[in-house]
Amino acid sequence: MAIKAFLFDLDGVIVDTAIYHYQAWRRLANELGFDISEEFNERLKGVSRMESLDLILAEGGQTLSDERKQELATQKNEWYLELVSRMTPDDILPGVAPFFSQVRKAGLKTALGSVSKNAPLILERIGMGEVFDAIIDGNKISKGKPDPEVFTKGAAELEVQPDECVVFEDAVAGIEAGKRGGMHTVGLGSPDVLTQADMVAPSLEHLTVDQVLERFQG
């Protein structure tokens, strides 16, 4: 089966906003009377906002009403937006622009598959709003990763079959989502962490489109 489309996560693949999420979540935890470490924050990668809040509250041993949790999630997002609103094209990760140039030359379709509801804002700030043929974000899905919805909807919008797609992810939950969606997966990060990925590289800077196509098209 020929590969026709590449689907990309946003955080950790195109840009790295993990530090902004961490700063906002840590500020929230501190206001609730406890702290969270950077190591703990790794568990929140690829996880939706409300699921992240539940993990943080469990870490702090706190139980709150749904109404209060919604207030806290909204507050965290406001702090996060203050930080990402300062982003510029300089925040695009190394190797992304050359890789996307190769993608276009290869005639491949592209989709963004991010659980973040702030993905459109980030893409606008970094000047990549027009790069993708389809954008699936947290506003278009009801289930977060590792559910495959964000990627299967991307494939549907691109009008391609799942096995014609390659998913690029930096998170374990994202790799699982891609595989559950019947897609090929490229993990960006440590092979010790992304053990389920079909192919692993440190980042897009260390990959070429030809290498990916050769891996999955034989």
UniProtKB/TrEMBL annotation:
Site location (Important for catalytic activity and assists the phosphoryl transfer reaction to Asp8 by balancing charge and orienting the reacting groups): 114, 145
Give the matching InterPro entries: B-phosphoglucomutase_hydrolase, Beta-PGM, Beta-PGM-like, HAD-like_sf, HAD-SF_hydro_IA, HAD_sf, PGP-like_dom2
The answer to keyword Translocase applying to this record is no
Enzyme nomenclature, EC number: 5.4.2.6
This protein's cofactor list reads: Mg(2+)
Q: Which gene encodes it?
A: pgmB
Origin superkingdom: Bacteria
Concerning PANTHER family, the annotation shows: 6-PHOSPHOGLUCONATE PHOSPHATASE, HEXITOL PHOSPHATASE B
Q: Which reaction does it catalyse?
A: beta-D-glucose 1-phosphate = beta-D-glucose 6-phosphate
Q: What biological process terms from GO does the record include?
A: carbohydrate metabolic process
List of residues binding substrate? 9-11, 25, 44-49, 52, 76, 114-118, 145
Q: What is this protein called?
A: Beta-phosphoglucomutase
Family of the protein in this entry: Belongs to the HAD-like hydrolase superfamily. CbbY/CbbZ/Gph/YieH family.
Keywords attached to this Swiss-Prot or TrEMBL record, sorted alphabetically, are: Carbohydrate metabolism, Isomerase, Magnesium, Metal-binding, Phosphoprotein
The Gene Ontology terms for molecular function here are: beta-phosphoglucomutase activity; magnesium ion binding
Where is Mg(2+) annotated to bind? Answer: 9, 11, 169-170
What are the catalytic residues? 9 (nucleophile), 11 (proton donor/acceptor)
Q: Which CDD domains match?
A: HAD_BPGM
**Cofactor: record remark:** Binds 2 magnesium ions per subunit.
